[in-house]
Automatic annotation (TrEMBL):
GO cellular component, one term: plasma membrane
Coiled-coil portions: none
Molecular functions per Gene Ontology: transmembrane transporter activity
Transmembrane as UniProt keyword: yes
Subcellular location: Cell membrane
Residue ranges constituting the ABC3 transporter permease C-terminal domain according to the UniProt record: 288-398
MacB-like periplasmic core domain ranges (all copies): 25-251
Stated family: Belongs to the ABC-4 integral membrane protein family.
Annotated protein name in UniProt: ABC transporter, permease protein
Residue stretches spanning the membrane: 26-49, 284-308, 336-362, 368-388
Membrane disposition: Multi-pass membrane protein
Main location: membrane
Amino acid sequence: MKIQNGYLDLIKAAISDFKRSKIRTFLTSLGIMIGVLSVVLLIALGIGLKNYLQRQFESLGANLIIIFPGNISSSEEGGGLGNFGAGFAGGANFDEKDYISLSRINEADYVVPLFMKSSVIESDGERKLGYLMGSSEDSFKILNLEILEGNFFTKGDVSSRAKKAVIGESLADNLYDAPQDAVGKTVRVSDQRFKVIGVYKKKGDREQDNAAVVPYRTTFGTLNPDETFFTIYLGTTDKDKVEEVKKKAEEVLLKRYDKDDFTVTEQSELLSTINQIFNIVNGVLVAIGSISLLVGGIGIMNIMYATVTERTKEVGIRRAVGATERDILNQFLAESILLSLFGGLLGLVLAFLIVLGIRAFFPASINLFSVVITLVISSGIGIFFGVFPARRAAKLPPIEAIRYE
């Protein structure tokens, strides 16, 4: 009980001193507050981006095989995380011949090519930045898109290179008074005109929600002069056939390309690779945010050092009436820790409010780990950077301290 009372007295004394210097207390904690805010927000945004990508892949269905240009496979030498970006930048240029060859795989229930580019989409005098997606009639199934108004295009539209488009609800909102008004209208992309035959419901994906999906063969020429695809999806309704489809897809592509020119991966494998990447990214973000915490700690040390100088006479009087070096050390150390915790809690509260505000637009999330880590770090900084000024106060000779002016 005596020890507990001693700690309570230290806390009360520290709080009493803080009340006498409210502005200094806030400014001293400001560095820690900004550091904690930075670390928690960076982790929350990293988790949000990870959640966003996971949702998009999960919405494609579980039994999905994705073919990318380049080698991004973690199981191959030269691939893995270090080659993830290079995989998208180089490798095979998939074309209609590959799509037709892959379509002959009996175990695959559907094969979907995808061409995509950022484009200015115009209609009724409105110009909006969106995305042009060239694909097949099965793309609506694989992307789990639901029709809001009108209809999707058909296999016959793909074969005949029909100038038809199905647009996202967000794009329709931006171009017209209401999504329902879009059907029957004409949109223009790079001097090509398309009749809007349908509008699909929002999915929460900015690219898809602002896209105009057209038959892939219609893009050949001005919009897609190389007649290539960014990626090709294969799907099966039977999860037991996923490995077989994957193996046969590799065999088909190896007849035309080298092994390092493409990657055939399952959705689960791609998510695993993405998770590894984000673990590394989050580590880097935490390290960057921790620099703010370090600066805040140095600020606490400087202020506490100045505080010791200001209160030299007070320390001398306390020593004269029986306070030990340990008592003085604990007093100033307690103030440092409380300042750090105060700043840490302020930073956490602000981070929670900011994340709460952006959750309507982005799936950012604060996890328990980041909260615990930042509080431990902030209190640890108070101890680490508070030791030097606290020891200086404790070592002051009582007589000289009393005489100090």
